[in-house]
């Protein structure tokens, strides 16, 4: 019996002869794909939902701050530039899902179930270990960052309601009575993720991705509406062509670091290559090929996110100018319309619940594949708990995924400024995962001749993105250093 490889948690056993034959002679089996696995059911729309859930995170609310650092000239231009880069490199990566390459009409070659599988099939050697280390460190950092972000939104709801009920909007007594720690909310978020983490794989969380994507549109739309209202109340748009200037409280060095961080934030906000192969592995079998489906899904999701990113960033900057806050929703205060802000923050929390799962599924699947291979005869690995006639939970999955969620929660509580560290992880991972590996895999699989015009253009793109990663990493390091100056463990 051959066990299901990584790509969607849990083990599924099929006939070894079926797998060895590639399933081609059993294509008539309605429930199996060409690799002997249960037939995939993903479409352009489910893949788009996964991508939008992963890409449009709560970070969209910080884009007004990023635009404020760069100004009206560079800010929107950088957004459009990186939308184009992400779309192009994502299509290159999608064409490497099958080791045979193939074209958009016919899918041939062996499937890659994970990003690491694709790197192994195309490049091999030390590239695989390097890819895995960067990918999983990045995903772990994102999980911690999402825990912090969700707790901030939950705490904002509590504070807004508290301020409203005490009816003392400017009173120090009211402010002190509404102060609380975010740690309980991190624990609550972790408890919810423990439950949702028992969903076995990507195929089973399509509904959660669609719900999360809808929530991202909800809070983005509220932010847009409030931005428009604030701009109208101001009597016009604020801001300048070059962004925040050198003034009181902003030194020339800070201007440089903030600009680099803003440039990096915009670039990384679009990146989802780290989970693209895992998403592609949910797409139903051809025709058309999985690469063609992912190209359409990428076009839809990048177009949607670009519109929302540009609107949220630009309207937020128009509303607040150089004083644009890190979180667009906090710029409107805690008070009125407090109920609308509560809805927006609640949508942020629901979205992050889904986004956490989308980003963590590759980690879950990798560990479970490794454990199944390491202890194939373990009774603990095979044991299941029945919760109903059609609901059974793997004991190993319950134990390991609960431990993982608990670890991310504790790290979030220990390092409340971990968002800066996540930015550093994003800076370090952007170039290799989003640009370098997709470019090199495409070159290797499709026989792009070294020294040809196409090869030179691809290498120039890779080199330019490497410079961006290094610059953004420098800006993130500066932020981490500043955060360490006032660091207090479990400060919440």
From TrEMBL:
Query: Which branch of life, at top level?
Result: Eukaryota
Segments spanning the bilayer are 47-68, 74-94, 136-157, 205-229, 297-318, 338-359, 398-418, 424-443, 455-478
Its predominant location is: membrane
A Gene Ontology biological process noted in the UniProt record is:
amino acid transport
**Keywords on this record?**
Amino-acid transport, Membrane, Transmembrane, Transmembrane helix, Transport
- Which intervals hold domain Amino acid transporter transmembrane? 40-479
CC terms in the record's Gene Ontology section: membrane
Where in the cell?
Answer: Membrane
Which InterPro entries does the record associate with it? AA_transpt_TM
Tell me the protein's name.
Amino acid transporter transmembrane domain-containing protein
What is the species listed in this Swiss-Prot or TrEMBL entry? Paspalum notatum var. saurae
């Amino acid at each position: 019996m051959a066990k299901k490889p990584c790509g969607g948690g849990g083990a599924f056993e099929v006939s070894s002869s079926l797998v060895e034959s590639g399933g081609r002679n059993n294509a008539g089996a309605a429930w199996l794909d060409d690799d002997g696995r249960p037939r995939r059911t993903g479409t352009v729309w489910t893949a788009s939902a996964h991508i939008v859930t992963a890409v449009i995170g709560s970070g969209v609310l910080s884009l007004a701050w990023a635009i404020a650092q760069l100004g009206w000239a560079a800010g929107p231009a950088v957004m459009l530039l990186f939308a184009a880069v992400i779309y192009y490199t994502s299509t290159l990566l999608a064409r490497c899902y099958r080791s045979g390459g193939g074209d958009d009409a016919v899918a041939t070659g062996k499937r890659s179930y994970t990003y690491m599988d694709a790197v192994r099939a195309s490049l091999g050697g030390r590239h695989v270990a390097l890819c895995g280390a960067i990918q999983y460190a990045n995903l772990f950092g994102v999980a911690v960052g999402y825990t912090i972000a969700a707790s901030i939104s939950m705490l904002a709801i509590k504070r807004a309601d508290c301020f409203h009920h005490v009816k003392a909007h400017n009173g120090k007594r009211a402010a002190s009575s509404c102060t609380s720690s975010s740690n309980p909310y991190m624990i609550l978020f972790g408890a919810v993720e423990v439950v949702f983490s028992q969903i076995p794989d990507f195929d089973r969380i399509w509904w959660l991705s669609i719900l999360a994507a809808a929530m991202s549109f909800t809070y983005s739309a509220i932010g847009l509406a409030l931005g428009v209202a604030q701009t109208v109340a101001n009597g016009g748009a604020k801001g300048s062509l070059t962004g925040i200037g050198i003034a009181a409280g902003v030194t020339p060095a800070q201007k440089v670091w903030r600009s680099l961080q803003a440039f990096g934030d915009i670039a990384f906000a679009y990146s989802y290559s780290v989970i693209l192969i895992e998403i592609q592995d949910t797409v139903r079998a051809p025709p058309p090929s999985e690469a063609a489906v992912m190209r359409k899904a990428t076009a839809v999701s990048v177009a949607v996110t670009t519109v929302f990113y540009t609107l949220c960033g630009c309207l937020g900057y128009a509303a607040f100018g150089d004083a644009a806050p890190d979180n667009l929703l906090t710029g409107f205060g805690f008070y009125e319309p407090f109920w609308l802000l509560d809805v927006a923050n609640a949508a942020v929390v629901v979205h992050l619940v889904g986004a956490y799962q989308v980003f963590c599924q590759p980690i879950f699947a990798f560990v479970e594949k490794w454990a199944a291979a390491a202890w194939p005869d373990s009774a603990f690995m095979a044991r299941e708990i029945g919760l109903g006639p059609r609901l059974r939970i793997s004991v190993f999955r319950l134990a390991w995924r609960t431990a993982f969620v608990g670890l991310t929660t504790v790290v979030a509580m220990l390092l409340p400024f971990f968002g800066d560290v996540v930015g550093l992880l994003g800076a370090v991972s952007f170039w290799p995962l989003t640009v370098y590996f997709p470019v090199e895999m495409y070159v290797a699989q499709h026989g792009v001749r070294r020294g040809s015009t196409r090869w030179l253009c691809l290498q120039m793109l890779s080199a330019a993105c490497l410079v961006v990663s290094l610059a953004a990493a420098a800006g993130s390091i500066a932020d981490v250093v500043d955060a360490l100056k006032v660091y207090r463990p479990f400060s919440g």
